[in-house]
């Protein structure tokens, strides 16, 4: 009897907590929607004043935001948009971007849309109205943006990559080391501009060891591996490579890049596989890096010997879900104030300008935060993870989050199937915690 009463009390308390969380979240994110809307105008004004250039954002339109980087939007259907990138004067590249970059409705409009959809559903279920429905329906599967014609006619000016960091990004030597003409002394690559920053550990003997490629997660760097794993592995058996992904750590952070899956994979291939003649290798990846690891394994099925995935961000998309990218974004960022992890992810996914403010306060001033961390801990705690957390640009983090985690929602299932069918590739996954 007493246990039953306690169980009911817990369920009532849990329900009350959920209702409170829903109510507070609704108010909080309505306010954040308004703040992000106002910040859009603030940043446009400051950008125009400081940089003498008005750069469009994803609040305005997808066409303006994407074509401003020299790329042309040709399709906006089904959650995976297509863009045309002008790689050279004679070569075009068609690739995917996530529609979550420019399709992030405010909470109020989302509630309104859901209400209207429910009303429509009730009407459609009415047998009288259902009998009056027409059978003709149009479905546009692919649209071509007229700006592609302008590009082919040479009416679009060339978009050059400006290596100079934006005013809201950090311009210290660490964050801009890739811009300098000479290579960083800590970079194992000979061309720091064209390749990713790479930390390697080679065997001390001439015996051929196995190659292992380490890929870090979101808002991190190669230090995640080189300062923790490398010292604990034998130098006589393995050739270890840990990269800073494009836009993170000491790797290039081009302002014109959309940080698509293709760009990330090509940079890893150029910086590691081609530069060091890696033919057969193992991959160890964490978080967002697991998606890149799976894509590499699918692209190089004969080369990848094993995959070790730590906390992969996999969200199975239900069958029949037409907006896979939107589904994953709502799973990753449910717009809730509790738990704190959900609140942080919601800020990162939904608010382009608020996250730019956060990057300005934290990343641009990372030297101050690192100094305070060392001062508070009396320099007794190693702060290499702070460097990995701070050393990125808003443009890189924003596009990587949407184009990799959300944008690959419809591909992860096929990647997993392909890896499972490859019997030459051993897969080990570490996820969650043992209870």
TrEMBL record:
GO terms for molecular function: hydrolase activity. Residues 212-324 form the AB hydrolase-1 domain. GO terms for biological process: cutin biosynthetic process. Pfam families: Abhydrolase_1 (PF00561). PANTHER family: HYDROLASE (PTHR43689), LYSOPHOSPHOLIPASE BODYGUARD 3-RELATED (PTHR43689:SF9). This is AB hydrolase-1 domain-containing protein. It comes from Glycine max.
